[in-house]
């Protein structure tokens, strides 16, 4: 009986066991294996040789790698805040009652369900100089087409990529914010009105604190997605012109195909840390702020 009572009292631990096993099998084990490979000169063909931290040292001395870090961080800093800002604004607007609200929501959300690779190729043909849709549209409106090679210009290509990424995935962010907004009890706004709170005060003291879980989800997923960007760049610029739009994800793949398995794995570990640090700092900040709201 004592054994059965102990099993019953610890049943929750056994219920968590499948999740723990899967987490260990598909995250901890690959991570440990990746760390091991990153410390070798593995090329995927011959027996690897342990070289310690040499791959990491080589990365920080590689000018191309530094440029890719800049591109990746620039893309994330441009995409993640804009996705959350416009996603929240869309949600506020489309949470109001008006005719055709469902249709507008569907139109805003639709690009998010299309593969970024396919969407990238669609925009590639839209932005083609001399023969793209946008080129002919500007020409027909007599707005000028000078310097219309937006993807072939190192100064504009990365900005165009940020714009397209925000346009495609703002609907995904909007849907999550909408779910948070629709869970807020109407009584809170009514109480705010009685206390004399205007729209801006209600937004700051009621809406934002009540959608903090949606904020967490959107910020974390947008940080992860922006720092690991791959498909949209491959489809539109393939990292060019030169390496002006190459991200770390593309750099990792090219090093891997170049038989630098150990080095590419080391870069993947660096990218993993680059993603974990801002996510950890944000979660720590938002959890503290939550108690102040």
Which key terms come to mind for this protein?
293 residues; mainly alpha; MetI-like fold; flat; Sugar ABC transporter permease; membrane; cell membrane
How helix-rich are the residues, as a percent range? over 70%
Number of helices: 14
CATH superfamily: MetI-like
Q: Biggest β-sheet, characterized?
A: none
Reading off the top of the CATH hierarchy, the class is best stated as Mainly Alpha
CATH overall fold name: MetI-like fold
Identify low-pLDDT runs: none
The span between the termini is 49 Å
> What's the overall geometry?
flat
Q: Any idea what the radius of gyration is?
A: 24 Å
Q: What's the number of domains?
A: 1
Q: Determine the mean pLDDT.
A: 90
Question: What class, by secondary structure content?
Answer: mainly alpha
The CATH architecture comes to Orthogonal Bundle
What fraction of residues sit in β-strands? under 5%
Tell how many strands the DSSP assignment holds. 0
What's this, in brief?
The chain has 293 residues and is mainly α.
Topology:
Layout: H1 2-9, H2 11-38, H3 54-60, H4 63-94, H5 101-109, H6 116-126, H7 133-140, H8 157-182, H9 186-194, H10 199-210, H11 212-227, H12 231-236, H13 248-257, H14 261-292
Helix pairs in contact: 2-14, 3-14, 4-8, 4-11, 8-11, 11-14, 13-14
Explain what the structure shows.
It comes from Paenibacillus apii. Residues 69-282 form the ABC transmembrane type-1 domain. The chain crosses the membrane at residues 12-32, 73-94, 106-126, 157-179, 217-236, 256-283. Pfam families: BPD_transp_1. Keywords: Cell membrane, Membrane, Transmembrane, Transmembrane helix, Transport. By secondary structure, the chain is mainly alpha-helical. The protein has one domain (62-291): MetI-like (MetI-like fold, Orthogonal Bundle), CATH 1.10.3720. 73% of the residues lie in helices and 0% in strands. The chain has helices at 2-9, 11-38, 54-60, 63-94, 101-109, 116-126, 133-140, 157-182, 186-194, 199-210, 212-227, 231-236, 248-257, 261-292. α3 (54-60) packs across α14 (261-292) and α11 (212-227) runs antiparallel to α14. The relative contact order is 0.14.
């Amino acid at each position: 009986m004592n054994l059965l009572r102990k099993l019953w009292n610890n049943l929750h631990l056994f219920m968590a066991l499948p999740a723990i096993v899967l987490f260990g099998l598909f995250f901890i084990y690959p991570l440990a294996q990746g760390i091991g490979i990153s410390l070798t000169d593995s090329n995927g063909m011959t027996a690897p040789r342990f070289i310690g931290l040499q791959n990491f040292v080589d990365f920080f001395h590689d000018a191309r790698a530094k440029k890719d870090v800049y591109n990746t961080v620039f893309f994330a800093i441009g995409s993640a805040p804009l996705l959350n800002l416009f996603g929240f604004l869309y949600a506020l607007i489309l949470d109001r009652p008006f005719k055709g609200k469902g249709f507008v929501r569907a139109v805003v959300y639709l690009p998010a369900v299309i593969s970024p690779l396919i969407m990238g190729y669609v925009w590639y043909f839209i932005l083609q100089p001399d023969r793209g849709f946008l080129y002919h549209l500007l020409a027909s409106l007599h707005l000028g087409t000078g310097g219309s090679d937006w993807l072939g210009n190192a100064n504009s290509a990365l900005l165009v990529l940020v714009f397209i990424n925000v346009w495609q995935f703002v609907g995904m962010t909007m849907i999550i914010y909408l779910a948070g907004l629709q869970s807020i009890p109407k009584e809170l706004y009514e109480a705010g009105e009685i206390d004399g709170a205007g729209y801006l005060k209600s937004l700051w003291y009621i809406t934002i604190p009540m959608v903090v879980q949606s904020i967490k989800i959107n910020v974390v997923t947008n940080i992860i997605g922006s720092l690991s960007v791959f498909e949209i760049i491959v489809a539109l610029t393939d990292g060019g012109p030169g390496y002006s739009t190459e991200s770390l994800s593309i750099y990792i793949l090219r090093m891997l195909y170049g038989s630098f398995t150990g080095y590419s794995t080391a870069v993947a570990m660096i990218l993993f840390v680059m993603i974990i640090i801002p996510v950890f700092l944000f979660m720590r900040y938002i959890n503290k702020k939550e108690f102040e709201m």
